[in-house]
């Protein structure tokens, strides 16, 4: 029987012996190397910062092993069997060494190559395949492969390598998690993941993209890790860092919206790791601060749904908060109206001019009526009318199947009772409607603390039973809250009216809502409009709008118990 390693690249016994010696000493030197690597990275950034020449930063590049690069297809095929093995003791030493170099050295080195940016996703595919297998059906093979990958990716994530490589390495590490302890459970990230993400984020000399990736990984770690499993020192560091981020202004060179995007992660992280509702006062303050963009303002409003406790009437003034939130919705509507109008002007300016022939003087013969042509035109018109009526009859038959005779008679005779037909929606209309609906969803989530649609203002829960902003609403203010919700239902009904079929019509529909939103933002009363019965926001909010609860504190499966020790070697 042919050995599984017969088609793999191999080294001589002397090389294998030297490699084994190197591996045995690598563990004892790892901590020192990582410390030196971090110092070297900081020194490199310091040198770059001191240069005023405007030259592009110089990044390190790891050497790619040529032998593996030439046989990568064969190696990938062999690793598929290796990942399914519960017992890897039978794998030949030289084959095991190849797998170790492939996962721990080749993949990390490949993503640092300047000419490999366009294929980075394909390079990382085998690495992500390992994490997927390890969470679904862990084996000794997947555990060992994850160990190799973690060691290699950590070097890239924390080193002075090109940002795309570091971002991919950080994203990979952030996904390392033990399988769910029970059916329906959530995989829990390993403790070292949070520590790595914190360390990378707190390196202020790192590029914004790298720090953003680490912040995203930290948010994921906080979301799926029970607070009881956090180290107290680490928890205090993270809280301090996130509060500092929320209180900070955009640094020089960072776009305000990019800064707000990072602050969204800080809001989510504080929601997950806070143990009382006091942080909600800060979220309300951000959501009502006109200087803050909607990107962070609306997210902070929705975060009230994830508080570990309830706000109190002493914390906020509900009516004032609702005014500010209406102002944010108003700002969103105006922004989208402006965008649609600019698109309309751009499309008009880009339209083709009339052909030159249209400007030529027509001859008298051409202007004389042609009886034969006129007759044909009338015949064609009749045919077109018949065709139109035939199509209309078909549509009417379909409608008759769905409506009772009395409703049909009322619709045809008095123009009542028949719902407006939906028209095809242009992409720009669909995009605007989705964006504005999401803004309304975040507001409702912050108001009620639940992702449920409000079918009727009278169905709002009592403050004693509610969450979000409603929990801090005095009973005497509930009527004004119901009136506010009722007006917002009118606004959303108009927003989701699909009887408008063009961007211009849709923009006009949005403009009609400006008066209502302006009145709400100024704390004025609004006259109830006659609308269809449509609840205040349809469907569940977008991903991350409703903060997800952390994973339960269930124990890890026995088959996975040794992976942490393996990765920390």
Write the layout of secondary structure elements.
Blueprint: H1 13-50, H2 66-70, H3 72-82, H4 93-110, H5 120-136, H6 140-158, H7 163-174, E1 177-178, E2 188-189, H8 191-201, H9 208-224, H10 232-247, H11 256-273, H12 279-287, H13 294-302, H14 318-349, H15 364-367, H16 371-402, H17 405-414, H18 427-448, H19 478-495, H20 503-511, H21 514-521, H22 563-567
Antiparallel strand pairs: 1-2
Helix pairs in contact: 4-6, 5-6, 5-7, 6-7, 7-9, 8-9, 9-11, 10-11, 11-13, 12-13, 13-14, 13-18, 14-18, 14-20, 14-21
Molecular structure report:
This protein is an all-alpha fold. It contains 22 helices and 2 strands. The longest helix has 38 residues.
Mean pLDDT: 77
Largest sheet descriptor:
2 strands, antiparallel
By helix and strand content, what is the structural category? mainly alpha
Tally of strands: 2
**Straight-line N-to-C gap:** 35 Å
Number of helices: 22
Q: State the strand order across the main sheet.
A: 1-2
Global Rg: 32 Å
Q: Overall 3D geometry?
A: elongated
Strand content: under 5%
> Spans of 5+ residues with little confidence (pLDDT < 50)?
1-54, 363-418, 538-550, 554-564
Order of helices and strands: HHHHHHHEEHHHHHHHHHHHHHHH
Provide a concise account of the structure shown.
The chain has 569 residues and is mainly α.
Question: What would the keywords be for this entry?
Answer:
2 strands, disordered N terminus, 1% strand, 569 residues, 60% helix, mainly alpha
